[in-house]
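Exercise: predict the fold of this chain.
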Amino acid sequence: MAAKMDDEFVLGTAVVRAFVDDVRTTITATFSPEQACEALRPRFAELLGDPHWLPAEYQAAAPKSGMGGGIGQWLLYRAKDQSLSLFSLVVPSGSATPIHDHLAWGLVGLYRGEQDEEIYARRDGALELVERRSLAPGDFYVLIPPRDDIHRVRTTSADTSVSIHLLTNDTGCVWRHSFDPASGEASPFRSGYVNVACEDE
């Protein structure tokens, strides 16, 4: 199924449009999030391996970002019905995201820089660190809630890191959760996008 005409392509290049068309066709042809993510692996790896498709403006830090630390979330594409989004997340050297969830399944991969990812599980109202992994350009992982949905990423390289997110909601505009690392308490959280406002803003 091709992308709908009223979907929003902030970066409407041939590369992005072809990628989104392939993603939508794959999702339509599969029967579960797990099956879709597995089928999308080669195409997502191809996007991460292309050093030319993402303009510099979508790899820039955002000093006034609501996420703090200069972290910028740049929308590239979103479906009108909020069923799919593609965006870059820019995390300056030494900065880390809050611990947060996504409430959507999809793929997340590192395009530039290096990151350390901490994955958490909620158990008896508290947060438990269940895995830590290092990421280099080209590495990517599957998010399928509730497994692996709560995490924090920190840039460990001297240069800014840029990750590409393909998720099945309008991630920057939906209300999700951030978590206190000590108590595990969840708070309403909306990351927003640097370059596009949410409808109710």
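Check your answer against the key: Residues 11 and 113 are 22 Å apart (CA to CA).
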